[in-house]
Amino acid sequence: MDSSGSANADSDPHGAQRPLSPHLSVYRPMMTMMMSIAHRITGAGLYVAMALLTLLFIGVGMGGAFYAAFGWLGSSAIGGLLVFLITWAIYHHLLGGVRHFLWDRGLYMDPKGREALAIGTLVGGVGLTVLTWIAKSLAG
After folding, report:
1. Distance CA 87, CA 126 (A)
2. Which secondary-structure segment (H or E) carries 11?
3. Of 36, 89, 118, 137, which residue is the least packed, with the fewest Cβ within 10 Å?
4. Contact (Cβ atoms closer than 8 angstroms) between residue 80 and residue 86
5. Is residue 1 within 8 Å of 7, Cβ to Cβ?
6. 15 in helix, strand or coil?
7. Residue-wise pLDDT tens digits, 90-129
């Protein structure tokens, strides 16, 4: 450790002997790994979505041109795709949280159970997103 109390690989005489943490290039990609990565990406994406929602609320409060700009974005093809992806991110992240909730209790930890939950997260997120948008289109 250096004078600040943190580990420093350059000054640690045993640093070169320690193994490196495994990373994506070490492991063969598998469904649980991909869903874990997607869970992290959707979590970050939802932070961006909340920032956009905050700007929309500010625009509503300010009225005029600011609100019109966000109204245009929301009604454009890009805005529609963005809202669709945010819908998927919400469902995917929610189901990923349920998957981790089950794992935290020691459930479905066997290889088949882990794979089934990972596939369920993917299929469930896409399915719930599509059902939401079908219901939205039927409601008008």
Report:
1. 9
2. none
3. 137
4. no
5. yes
6. helix
7. 999 999 999 999 999 999 999 999 999 999 999 999 999 9
Report how far residue 30's alpha carbon sits from residue 76's, in angstroms, rounded to the nearest whole number.
Answer: 36
Token output for 51: 């920032």
Mean pLDDT computed over every residue of the chain: 86
C-alpha closest to that of 90 among 138, 135, 49: 49
The confidence score (pLDDT) of residue 69 equals: 78
pTM: 0.77
Q: How far apart are CA 91 and CA 69, in angstroms?
A: 27
Q: Domains in the chain, ordered, with CATH?
A: 30-139 (1.20.1300.10)
Q: How far apart are CA 116 and CA 118, in angstroms?
A: 5
**Which amino acid, 134?**
I
Q: In a 3-state reduction of DSSP, which class is residue 4?
A: coil
Consecutive H or E run containing 30: none
Q: Where are the alpha helices (DSSP H) in the chain?
A: 31-62, 64-75, 77-104, 111-139
Chain centroid to CA 47? 9
CB 4 within 8 A of CB 51: no
Q: What residue type is 125 in one-letter code?
A: G
CB atoms within 10 A of CB 121: 27
